Protein backbone atom coordinates (compact mmCIF):
# COMPACT_ATOMS: atom_id res chain seq x y z
CA UNK A 1 0.00 0.00 0.00
CA UNK A 2 2.73 2.46 0.96
CA UNK A 3 5.14 3.93 -1.58
CA UNK A 4 8.80 4.07 -0.52
CA UNK A 5 10.36 7.39 0.48
CA UNK A 6 12.99 8.62 -1.98
CA UNK A 7 16.27 10.27 -0.91
CA UNK A 8 19.23 11.96 -2.60
CA UNK A 9 22.54 12.57 -0.80
CA UNK A 10 24.96 15.42 -1.54
CA UNK A 11 28.49 15.54 -0.04
CA UNK A 12 31.86 16.28 -1.62
CA UNK A 13 33.54 13.38 0.21
CA UNK A 14 32.85 10.00 -1.54
CA UNK A 15 33.44 7.94 1.58
CA UNK A 16 30.94 9.97 3.59
CA UNK A 17 28.36 9.80 0.75
CA UNK A 18 28.57 6.01 0.64
CA UNK A 19 28.44 5.73 4.43
CA UNK A 20 25.34 7.92 4.72
CA UNK A 21 23.64 5.99 1.89
CA UNK A 22 24.27 2.67 3.73
CA UNK A 23 22.95 4.05 7.02
CA UNK A 24 19.80 5.37 5.30
CA UNK A 25 18.96 2.07 3.59
CA UNK A 26 19.76 0.03 6.69
CA UNK A 27 17.56 2.17 8.92
CA UNK A 28 14.27 1.08 7.25
CA UNK A 29 13.06 -0.70 4.08
CA UNK A 30 10.82 2.31 3.48
CA UNK A 31 13.85 4.40 2.39
CA UNK A 32 15.18 4.32 -1.17
CA UNK A 33 18.41 6.20 -2.06
CA UNK A 34 17.87 7.41 -5.63
CA UNK A 35 21.33 8.90 -6.20
CA UNK A 36 24.33 10.60 -4.60
CA UNK A 37 26.19 13.74 -5.76
CA UNK A 38 29.48 15.52 -5.06
CA UNK A 39 28.12 19.08 -5.12
CA UNK A 40 24.98 21.18 -5.28
CA UNK A 41 25.17 21.83 -9.05
CA UNK A 42 25.05 18.10 -9.88
CA UNK A 43 22.16 17.58 -7.48
CA UNK A 44 20.19 20.57 -8.77
CA UNK A 45 20.57 19.43 -12.41
CA UNK A 46 19.27 15.99 -11.42
CA UNK A 47 16.30 17.48 -9.57
CA UNK A 48 15.44 19.64 -12.60
CA UNK A 49 15.56 16.72 -15.03
CA UNK A 50 13.85 13.92 -13.07
CA UNK A 51 10.13 13.21 -12.95
CA UNK A 52 10.63 11.07 -9.83
CA UNK A 53 9.29 12.52 -6.61
CA UNK A 54 12.07 13.22 -4.09
CA UNK A 55 11.07 13.30 -0.42
CA UNK A 56 14.33 13.98 1.44
CA UNK A 57 17.55 15.79 0.59
CA UNK A 58 20.53 14.98 2.85
CA UNK A 59 23.24 17.53 2.13
CA UNK A 60 26.55 18.81 3.44
CA UNK A 61 26.92 22.56 3.92
CA UNK A 62 30.44 23.34 2.65
CA UNK A 63 30.92 22.05 -0.92
CA UNK A 64 32.56 23.36 -4.13
CA UNK A 65 30.57 25.08 -6.91
CA UNK A 66 27.33 25.24 -4.89
CA UNK A 67 27.02 24.74 -1.13
CA UNK A 68 24.17 22.99 0.64
CA UNK A 69 22.33 26.11 1.76
CA UNK A 70 22.31 27.56 -1.77
CA UNK A 71 21.06 24.20 -3.09
CA UNK A 72 18.20 24.21 -0.57
CA UNK A 73 17.22 27.70 -1.66
CA UNK A 74 17.32 26.80 -5.39
CA UNK A 75 15.35 23.55 -5.19
CA UNK A 76 12.25 25.26 -3.77
CA UNK A 77 11.30 26.28 -7.32
CA UNK A 78 11.29 22.65 -8.53
CA UNK A 79 10.08 20.23 -5.83
CA UNK A 80 8.74 20.30 -2.31
CA UNK A 81 11.71 18.41 -0.83
CA UNK A 82 12.46 18.21 2.89
CA UNK A 83 16.14 19.07 3.57
CA UNK A 84 18.37 17.48 6.26
CA UNK A 85 21.76 19.17 6.76
CA UNK A 86 24.88 17.25 7.86
CA UNK A 87 27.95 19.36 8.53
CA UNK A 88 31.23 19.46 10.39
CA UNK A 89 30.68 23.12 11.22
CA UNK A 90 29.19 23.69 14.66
CA UNK A 91 28.36 27.27 13.76
CA UNK A 92 25.18 28.95 14.93
CA UNK A 93 25.10 31.18 11.81
CA UNK A 94 24.87 28.07 9.59
CA UNK A 95 22.23 26.50 11.80
CA UNK A 96 20.11 29.67 11.83
CA UNK A 97 20.30 30.07 8.03
CA UNK A 98 19.45 26.41 7.50
CA UNK A 99 16.43 26.54 9.80
CA UNK A 100 15.12 29.65 8.03
CA UNK A 101 15.20 27.71 4.75
CA UNK A 102 13.03 24.90 6.11
CA UNK A 103 15.67 22.36 7.16
CA UNK A 104 13.98 19.61 9.16
CA UNK A 105 17.09 18.83 11.23
CA UNK A 106 20.83 19.60 11.54
CA UNK A 107 23.39 16.87 12.31
CA UNK A 108 27.07 17.35 13.10
CA UNK A 109 29.89 15.17 11.75
CA UNK A 110 31.08 12.63 12.66
CA UNK A 111 27.59 11.16 12.45
CA UNK A 112 26.40 9.14 15.43
CA UNK A 113 24.72 6.04 13.94
CA UNK A 114 22.09 5.57 16.66
CA UNK A 115 21.21 9.25 16.73
CA UNK A 116 21.02 9.36 12.93
CA UNK A 117 18.74 6.32 12.81
CA UNK A 118 16.43 7.85 15.45
CA UNK A 119 16.30 11.10 13.50
CA UNK A 120 15.49 9.24 10.27
CA UNK A 121 12.67 7.38 12.00
CA UNK A 122 11.16 10.67 13.13
CA UNK A 123 11.59 12.19 9.65
CA UNK A 124 10.03 9.06 8.11
CA UNK A 125 7.00 9.40 10.39
CA UNK A 126 6.54 13.08 9.45
CA UNK A 127 6.99 12.46 5.72
CA UNK A 128 4.55 9.54 5.70
CA UNK A 129 2.03 11.61 7.61
CA UNK A 130 2.46 14.43 5.08
CA UNK A 131 2.15 12.06 2.11
CA UNK A 132 -0.92 10.40 3.64
CA UNK A 133 -2.59 13.82 4.06
CA UNK A 134 -1.83 14.61 0.39
CA UNK A 135 -3.38 11.30 -0.64
CA UNK A 136 -6.51 12.02 1.41
CA UNK A 137 -6.80 15.43 -0.30
CA UNK A 138 -6.51 13.68 -3.67
CA UNK A 139 -9.34 11.26 -2.84
CA UNK A 140 -11.53 14.11 -1.56
CA UNK A 141 -11.03 15.91 -4.89
CA UNK A 142 -11.87 12.69 -6.74
CA UNK A 143 -15.06 12.24 -4.71
CA UNK A 144 -16.08 15.85 -5.42
CA UNK A 145 -15.55 15.26 -9.15
CA UNK A 146 -12.62 17.73 -9.25
CA UNK A 147 -9.90 15.18 -10.12
CA UNK A 148 -9.99 13.23 -13.39
CA UNK A 149 -6.50 11.69 -13.54
CA UNK A 150 -5.17 8.61 -11.72
CA UNK A 151 -2.36 9.25 -9.22
CA UNK A 152 1.00 7.62 -10.08
CA UNK A 153 1.43 6.32 -6.51
CA UNK A 154 -1.71 4.15 -6.67
CA UNK A 155 -1.11 0.44 -6.98
CA UNK A 156 -1.79 -0.64 -10.56
CA UNK A 157 -4.40 -3.33 -11.06
CA UNK A 158 -5.77 -2.86 -7.55
CA UNK A 159 -9.44 -2.71 -6.66
CA UNK A 160 -11.19 -0.53 -4.10
CA UNK A 161 -14.25 -0.55 -1.84
CA UNK A 162 -15.68 2.69 -0.49
CA UNK A 163 -17.34 2.52 2.95
CA UNK A 164 -19.15 5.12 5.02
CA UNK A 165 -19.72 4.97 8.79
CA UNK A 166 -22.55 7.07 10.16
CA UNK A 167 -23.91 7.53 13.68
CA UNK A 168 -27.35 6.06 14.34
CA UNK A 169 -29.97 7.96 16.33
CA UNK A 170 -28.22 8.56 19.71
CA UNK A 171 -29.78 7.66 23.06
CA UNK A 172 -31.93 10.36 24.65
CA UNK A 173 -29.26 11.17 27.25
CA UNK A 174 -26.72 11.99 24.52
CA UNK A 175 -28.94 14.45 22.65
CA UNK A 176 -28.05 17.04 25.29
CA UNK A 177 -24.30 16.70 24.68
CA UNK A 178 -22.41 19.82 23.62
CA UNK A 179 -20.80 20.29 20.22
CA UNK A 180 -17.37 19.97 21.85
CA UNK A 181 -18.29 16.56 23.27
CA UNK A 182 -19.59 15.36 19.91
CA UNK A 183 -16.35 16.50 18.27
CA UNK A 184 -14.47 14.34 20.79
CA UNK A 185 -16.70 11.39 19.87
CA UNK A 186 -16.02 11.92 16.16
CA UNK A 187 -12.29 11.97 16.91
CA UNK A 188 -12.60 8.76 18.92
CA UNK A 189 -14.45 7.09 16.05
CA UNK A 190 -11.72 8.22 13.64
CA UNK A 191 -9.07 6.61 15.86
CA UNK A 192 -11.01 3.33 16.09
CA UNK A 193 -11.51 3.16 12.32
CA UNK A 194 -7.86 4.01 11.60
CA UNK A 195 -6.71 1.33 14.04
CA UNK A 196 -8.66 -1.33 12.14
CA UNK A 197 -7.79 -0.12 8.66
CA UNK A 198 -4.08 0.34 9.42
CA UNK A 199 -3.64 -2.57 11.81
CA UNK A 200 -1.27 -4.55 9.56
CA UNK A 201 0.83 -1.49 8.85
CA UNK A 202 3.13 -1.46 11.85
CA UNK A 203 1.63 1.79 13.12
CA UNK A 204 1.94 3.90 9.98
CA UNK A 205 -0.71 5.14 7.59
CA UNK A 206 -2.06 3.49 4.47
CA UNK A 207 -1.79 -0.18 5.50
CA UNK A 208 -5.02 -1.34 3.87
CA UNK A 209 -6.65 1.92 2.93
CA UNK A 210 -7.37 5.54 3.78
CA UNK A 211 -9.68 7.09 6.39
CA UNK A 212 -11.12 10.61 6.63
CA UNK A 213 -14.13 12.43 8.05
CA UNK A 214 -16.56 15.01 6.73
CA UNK A 215 -18.02 17.91 8.67
CA UNK A 216 -21.49 16.32 9.00
CA UNK A 217 -20.16 13.29 10.89
CA UNK A 218 -19.57 10.73 8.15
CA UNK A 219 -16.38 8.70 8.44
CA UNK A 220 -15.13 7.39 5.09
CA UNK A 221 -12.96 4.33 4.46
CA UNK A 222 -11.41 3.69 1.06
CA UNK A 223 -10.12 0.12 1.21
CA UNK A 224 -7.69 -1.35 -1.30
CA UNK A 225 -7.09 -5.04 -1.93
CA UNK A 226 -9.34 -6.25 0.91
CA UNK A 227 -11.41 -9.30 0.01
CA UNK A 228 -13.75 -9.20 3.01
CA UNK A 229 -14.61 -5.52 3.35
CA UNK A 230 -17.94 -6.36 5.00
CA UNK A 231 -16.16 -8.28 7.78
CA UNK A 232 -13.82 -5.34 8.45
CA UNK A 233 -16.79 -2.94 8.43
CA UNK A 234 -18.61 -5.11 10.96
CA UNK A 235 -15.52 -5.24 13.20
CA UNK A 236 -15.38 -1.42 13.13
CA UNK A 237 -19.09 -1.23 13.95
CA UNK A 238 -18.71 -3.61 16.89
CA UNK A 239 -15.66 -1.74 18.25
CA UNK A 240 -17.46 1.62 18.22
CA UNK A 241 -20.38 0.04 20.05
CA UNK A 242 -18.08 -1.64 22.60
CA UNK A 243 -15.85 1.34 23.43
CA UNK A 244 -18.18 4.34 22.94
CA UNK A 245 -21.55 2.71 23.81
CA UNK A 246 -22.99 4.08 20.56
CA UNK A 247 -24.41 2.32 17.54
CA UNK A 248 -23.33 3.10 14.01
CA UNK A 249 -24.29 1.88 10.55
CA UNK A 250 -21.66 1.13 7.91
CA UNK A 251 -22.41 1.15 4.20
CA UNK A 252 -20.04 -0.84 1.95
CA UNK A 253 -19.97 0.01 -1.75
CA UNK A 254 -19.32 -2.18 -4.78
CA UNK A 255 -15.83 -3.07 -5.95
CA UNK A 256 -14.23 -0.73 -8.52
CA UNK A 257 -10.83 -0.05 -10.08
CA UNK A 258 -10.84 3.61 -11.15
CA UNK A 259 -10.70 6.11 -8.27
CA UNK A 260 -11.81 8.93 -10.56
CA UNK A 261 -15.25 7.23 -10.54
CA UNK A 262 -15.54 7.82 -6.76
CA UNK A 263 -18.54 10.22 -7.15
CA UNK A 264 -20.66 7.33 -8.49
CA UNK A 265 -19.71 5.02 -5.63
CA UNK A 266 -20.18 7.80 -3.09
CA UNK A 267 -23.81 8.10 -4.28
CA UNK A 268 -24.23 4.32 -4.05
CA UNK A 269 -22.84 4.19 -0.50
CA UNK A 270 -24.94 7.13 0.73
CA UNK A 271 -28.01 5.61 -0.92
CA UNK A 272 -27.52 2.41 1.06
CA UNK A 273 -27.41 4.41 4.32
CA UNK A 274 -31.06 5.39 3.70
CA UNK A 275 -31.99 1.78 4.34
CA UNK A 276 -31.11 2.23 8.00
CA UNK A 277 -34.21 4.41 8.43
CA UNK A 278 -36.36 1.54 7.18
CA UNK A 279 -34.63 -1.62 8.34
CA UNK A 280 -32.75 -0.38 11.38
CA UNK A 281 -29.24 0.67 12.29
CA UNK A 282 -26.28 -0.95 14.05
CA UNK A 283 -25.50 -3.11 11.02
CA UNK A 284 -23.56 -3.24 7.74
CA UNK A 285 -25.31 -2.64 4.41
CA UNK A 286 -23.88 -3.67 1.04
CA UNK A 287 -25.31 -4.34 -2.39
CA UNK A 288 -23.82 -7.84 -2.38
CA UNK A 289 -25.82 -8.72 0.73
CA UNK A 290 -29.02 -7.41 -0.80
CA UNK A 291 -28.61 -9.60 -3.87
CA UNK A 292 -28.48 -12.88 -1.93
CA UNK A 293 -31.30 -15.20 -3.02
CA UNK A 294 -32.14 -18.92 -3.07
CA UNK A 295 -30.34 -19.34 -6.42
CA UNK A 296 -27.61 -17.47 -8.27
CA UNK A 297 -29.81 -17.50 -11.40
CA UNK A 298 -32.64 -15.74 -9.56
CA UNK A 299 -30.16 -13.25 -8.09
CA UNK A 300 -28.71 -12.41 -11.51
CA UNK A 301 -32.20 -12.02 -13.00
CA UNK A 302 -33.23 -9.80 -10.10
CA UNK A 303 -30.23 -7.53 -10.64
CA UNK A 304 -30.97 -7.24 -14.38
CA UNK A 305 -34.59 -6.33 -13.66
CA UNK A 306 -33.47 -3.83 -11.02
CA UNK A 307 -31.10 -2.00 -13.35
CA UNK A 308 -33.71 -1.88 -16.12
CA UNK A 309 -36.32 -0.65 -13.62
CA UNK A 310 -33.96 2.15 -12.59
CA UNK A 311 -33.59 3.27 -16.24
CA UNK A 312 -37.37 3.12 -16.82
CA UNK A 313 -38.04 5.31 -13.75
CA UNK A 314 -35.41 7.87 -14.79
CA UNK A 315 -36.86 8.11 -18.32
CA UNK A 316 -40.48 8.26 -17.09
CA UNK A 317 -41.50 5.15 -19.03
CA UNK A 318 -44.62 4.29 -17.02
CA UNK A 319 -45.68 1.20 -19.00
CA UNK A 320 -42.15 -0.24 -18.90
CA UNK A 321 -41.86 0.52 -15.17
CA UNK A 322 -45.09 -1.36 -14.39
CA UNK A 323 -44.16 -4.25 -16.66
CA UNK A 324 -40.67 -4.71 -15.17
CA UNK A 325 -41.79 -4.44 -11.56
CA UNK A 326 -44.64 -6.90 -12.16
CA UNK A 327 -42.19 -9.41 -13.65
CA UNK A 328 -39.81 -8.94 -10.71
CA UNK A 329 -42.59 -9.44 -8.19
CA UNK A 330 -43.88 -12.50 -10.04
CA UNK A 331 -40.39 -13.94 -9.71
CA UNK A 332 -40.21 -13.08 -6.00
CA UNK A 333 -43.59 -14.68 -5.38
CA UNK A 334 -41.98 -18.07 -6.05
CA UNK A 335 -39.42 -17.62 -3.23
CA UNK A 336 -40.12 -19.23 0.11
CA UNK A 337 -37.23 -17.91 2.23
CA UNK A 338 -38.34 -14.83 4.22
CA UNK A 339 -34.81 -13.42 4.62
CA UNK A 340 -34.09 -13.64 0.88
CA UNK A 341 -37.45 -12.04 0.08
CA UNK A 342 -36.77 -9.12 2.42
CA UNK A 343 -33.30 -8.64 0.90
CA UNK A 344 -34.83 -8.51 -2.59
CA UNK A 345 -37.34 -5.87 -1.50
CA UNK A 346 -34.46 -3.90 0.01
CA UNK A 347 -32.73 -4.00 -3.36
CA UNK A 348 -35.75 -2.47 -5.14
CA UNK A 349 -35.99 0.19 -2.44
CA UNK A 350 -32.31 1.01 -2.92
CA UNK A 351 -32.82 1.46 -6.67
CA UNK A 352 -35.69 3.92 -6.16
CA UNK A 353 -33.92 5.82 -3.36
CA UNK A 354 -30.75 6.03 -5.44
CA UNK A 355 -32.66 7.51 -8.39
CA UNK A 356 -34.21 10.20 -6.17
CA UNK A 357 -30.89 10.87 -4.47
CA UNK A 358 -29.18 11.47 -7.82
CA UNK A 359 -31.96 13.84 -8.89
CA UNK A 360 -31.32 15.87 -5.69
CA UNK A 361 -35.07 15.83 -4.93
CA UNK A 362 -35.04 16.31 -1.14
CA UNK A 363 -38.83 16.54 -0.66
CA UNK A 364 -39.35 13.39 -2.73
CA UNK A 365 -36.74 11.50 -0.70
CA UNK A 366 -38.37 12.57 2.57
CA UNK A 367 -41.82 11.47 1.33
CA UNK A 368 -40.52 8.13 0.09
CA UNK A 369 -38.69 7.43 3.35
CA UNK A 370 -41.95 7.95 5.26
CA UNK A 371 -43.80 5.66 2.82
CA UNK A 372 -41.11 2.99 2.98
CA UNK A 373 -41.10 3.02 6.77
CA UNK A 374 -44.86 2.50 6.75
CA UNK A 375 -44.49 -0.23 4.12
CA UNK A 376 -42.02 -2.16 6.26
CA UNK A 377 -44.11 -1.91 9.44
CA UNK A 378 -47.65 -2.33 8.11
CA UNK A 379 -47.57 -4.49 4.98
CA UNK A 380 -49.13 -7.85 5.86
CA UNK A 381 -49.45 -9.63 2.49
CA UNK A 382 -47.55 -10.06 -0.73
CA UNK A 383 -50.47 -8.63 -2.70
CA UNK A 384 -50.33 -5.45 -0.64
CA UNK A 385 -46.55 -5.35 -1.04
CA UNK A 386 -46.97 -5.58 -4.83
CA UNK A 387 -49.52 -2.73 -4.87
CA UNK A 388 -47.43 -0.42 -2.70
CA UNK A 389 -44.15 -1.04 -4.50
CA UNK A 390 -45.82 -0.31 -7.85
CA UNK A 391 -47.21 2.93 -6.44
CA UNK A 392 -43.79 3.94 -5.09
CA UNK A 393 -42.09 3.27 -8.43
CA UNK A 394 -44.67 5.35 -10.31
CA UNK A 395 -44.44 8.15 -7.75
CA UNK A 396 -40.64 8.18 -8.09
CA UNK A 397 -41.05 8.46 -11.86
CA UNK A 398 -43.56 11.31 -11.43
CA UNK A 399 -41.23 13.20 -9.07
CA UNK A 400 -38.42 13.01 -11.60
CA UNK A 401 -40.76 14.05 -14.45
CA UNK A 402 -41.81 17.17 -12.53
CA UNK A 403 -38.19 17.93 -11.69
CA UNK A 404 -37.29 17.62 -15.37
CA UNK A 405 -40.21 19.85 -16.43
CA UNK A 406 -39.12 22.51 -13.95
CA UNK A 407 -35.61 22.32 -15.34
CA UNK A 408 -36.91 22.69 -18.92
CA UNK A 409 -38.96 25.76 -17.93
CA UNK A 410 -35.94 27.55 -16.54
CA UNK A 411 -34.64 28.85 -19.94
CA UNK A 412 -38.05 30.33 -20.79
CA UNK A 413 -38.35 31.99 -17.37
CA UNK A 414 -34.83 33.33 -17.75
CA UNK A 415 -35.76 34.76 -21.16
CA UNK A 416 -38.87 36.45 -19.72
CA UNK A 417 -36.85 38.10 -16.95
CA UNK A 418 -34.24 39.31 -19.44
CA UNK A 419 -36.93 40.77 -21.75
CA UNK A 420 -38.46 42.69 -18.81
CA UNK A 421 -35.07 44.18 -17.94
CA UNK A 422 -34.30 45.24 -21.54
CA UNK A 423 -37.63 46.56 -22.90
CA UNK A 424 -35.99 49.82 -23.97
CA UNK A 425 -33.64 48.00 -26.33
CA UNK A 426 -34.34 46.88 -29.96
CA UNK A 427 -34.83 43.20 -29.08
CA UNK A 428 -34.75 40.35 -31.61
CA UNK A 429 -35.31 36.59 -31.36
CA UNK A 430 -31.58 36.12 -31.94
CA UNK A 431 -30.52 38.53 -29.16
CA UNK A 432 -32.95 36.97 -26.65
CA UNK A 433 -31.95 33.36 -27.50
CA UNK A 434 -28.27 34.23 -27.07
CA UNK A 435 -28.90 35.05 -23.39
CA UNK A 436 -30.15 31.53 -22.55
CA UNK A 437 -28.14 30.33 -24.58
CA UNK A 438 -30.29 28.28 -26.96
CA UNK A 439 -30.80 27.72 -30.67
CA UNK A 440 -33.27 30.47 -31.80
CA UNK A 441 -35.61 28.07 -33.61
CA UNK A 442 -35.72 25.60 -30.69
CA UNK A 443 -36.11 28.52 -28.25
CA UNK A 444 -39.19 29.79 -30.14
CA UNK A 445 -40.71 26.30 -30.12
CA UNK A 446 -40.14 25.85 -26.37
CA UNK A 447 -41.44 29.34 -25.58
CA UNK A 448 -44.68 28.76 -27.51
CA UNK A 449 -45.07 25.27 -26.01
CA UNK A 450 -44.69 26.48 -22.42
CA UNK A 451 -46.41 29.89 -22.56
CA UNK A 452 -49.01 29.43 -25.31
CA UNK A 453 -47.84 32.57 -27.16
CA UNK A 454 -44.99 33.48 -29.47
CA UNK A 455 -41.93 35.39 -28.31
CA UNK A 456 -43.00 38.35 -30.47
CA UNK A 457 -46.51 38.41 -28.95
CA UNK A 458 -45.09 38.20 -25.43
CA UNK A 459 -42.62 41.03 -26.13
CA UNK A 460 -45.36 43.24 -27.60
CA UNK A 461 -47.68 42.54 -24.66
CA UNK A 462 -45.01 43.47 -22.12
CA UNK A 463 -44.16 46.67 -24.00
CA UNK A 464 -47.82 47.69 -24.21
CA UNK A 465 -48.36 47.04 -20.49
CA UNK A 466 -45.28 49.13 -19.66
CA UNK A 467 -46.43 51.91 -21.99
CA UNK A 468 -49.90 51.97 -20.42
CA UNK A 469 -48.37 52.28 -16.95
CA UNK A 470 -46.16 55.18 -18.08
CA UNK A 471 -49.12 56.98 -19.67
CA UNK A 472 -51.01 56.85 -16.37
CA UNK A 473 -48.23 57.41 -13.85
CA UNK A 474 -45.78 59.76 -15.58
CA UNK A 475 -45.69 63.13 -17.32
CA UNK A 476 -43.47 61.86 -20.13
CA UNK A 477 -44.19 62.93 -23.67
CA UNK A 478 -45.37 60.42 -26.25
CA UNK A 479 -41.99 60.02 -27.98
CA UNK A 480 -40.31 59.55 -24.59
CA UNK A 481 -42.77 56.80 -23.62
CA UNK A 482 -42.24 55.11 -27.00
CA UNK A 483 -38.47 55.15 -26.44
CA UNK A 484 -38.88 53.77 -22.90
CA UNK A 485 -40.60 50.65 -24.23
CA UNK A 486 -38.29 50.08 -27.20
CA UNK A 487 -39.91 51.99 -30.11
CA UNK A 488 -38.00 54.63 -32.05
CA UNK A 489 -40.93 55.44 -34.38
CA UNK A 490 -43.76 57.17 -32.46
CA UNK A 491 -46.31 56.51 -35.23
CA UNK A 492 -45.51 52.80 -35.28
CA UNK A 493 -45.78 52.75 -31.48
CA UNK A 494 -49.21 54.41 -31.64
CA UNK A 495 -50.46 51.87 -34.21
CA UNK A 496 -49.27 48.97 -32.07
CA UNK A 497 -50.87 50.50 -28.96
CA UNK A 498 -54.21 50.98 -30.74
CA UNK A 499 -54.05 47.43 -32.08
CA UNK A 500 -53.52 46.10 -28.56
CA UNK A 501 -55.87 48.36 -26.50
CA UNK A 502 -58.35 49.48 -29.19
CA UNK A 503 -57.60 53.19 -28.66
CA UNK A 504 -54.68 55.54 -29.34
CA UNK A 505 -52.28 56.30 -26.44
CA UNK A 506 -53.60 59.86 -26.02
CA UNK A 507 -57.22 58.64 -25.83
CA UNK A 508 -56.22 55.91 -23.37
CA UNK A 509 -54.77 58.52 -21.03
CA UNK A 510 -57.91 60.71 -21.33
CA UNK A 511 -60.20 57.80 -20.55
CA UNK A 512 -58.18 56.87 -17.48
CA UNK A 513 -58.14 60.46 -16.19
SSE topology sketch:
Layout: E1 5-10, H1 14-27, E2 31-37, H2 40-49, E3 56-59, H3 68-75, E4 82-87, H4 92-100, E5 105-108, H5 113-143, E6 160-167, H6 179-197, E7 209-213, E8 219-224, H7 229-244, E9 248-256, H8 262-273, H9 276-279, E10 284-286, H10 287-290, H11 296-314, H12 318-332, H13 338-358, H14 362-378, H15 382-421, H16 429-434, H17 440-451, H18 455-473, H19 478-484, H20 490-501, H21 505-512
Structure description:
With 513 residues, the protein is an alpha/beta fold. Helix content is 59%, strand content 11%. The chain is built from 21 helices and ten strands. It has helices at residues 14-27, 40-49, 68-75, 92-100, 113-143, 179-197, 229-244, 262-273, 276-279, 287-290, 296-314, 318-332, 338-358, 362-378, 382-421, 429-434, 440-451, 455-473, 478-484, 490-501, 505-512, and strands at residues 5-10, 31-37, 56-59, 82-87, 105-108, 160-167, 209-213, 219-224, 248-256, 284-286. The strands form two sheets. A five-stranded parallel beta sheet has the order 2-1-3-4-5, sandwiched between helices. Strands 7-8-6-9-10 form a five-stranded mixed beta sheet, sandwiched between helices. Helix 8 crosses helix 13. The protein is flat and about 105 Å long. Keywords: Cytoplasm, DNA-binding, Phosphoprotein, Transcription, Transcription regulation, Two-component regulatory system. Residues 413-511 form the HTH araC/xylS-type domain. Residues 6-124 form the Response regulatory domain. The modification 4-aspartylphosphate is found at residue 60.
Amino acid sequence: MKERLHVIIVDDEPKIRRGIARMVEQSSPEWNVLNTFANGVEALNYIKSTVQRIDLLITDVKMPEMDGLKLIQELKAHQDIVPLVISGYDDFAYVRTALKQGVIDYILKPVDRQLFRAQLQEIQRKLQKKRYAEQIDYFKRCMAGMEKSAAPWLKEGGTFRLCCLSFDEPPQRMKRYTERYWNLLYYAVLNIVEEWVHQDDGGGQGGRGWVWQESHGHTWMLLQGIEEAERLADAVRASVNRYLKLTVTVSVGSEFADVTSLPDYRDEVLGQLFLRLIFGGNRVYSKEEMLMSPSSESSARLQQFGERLRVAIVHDEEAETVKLLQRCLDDLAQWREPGALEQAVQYFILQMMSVLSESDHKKARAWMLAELNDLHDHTSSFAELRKRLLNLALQASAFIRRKREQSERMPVNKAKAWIQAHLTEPLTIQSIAEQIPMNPTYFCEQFKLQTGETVHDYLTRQRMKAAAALLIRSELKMHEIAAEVGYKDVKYFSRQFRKYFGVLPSRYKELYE
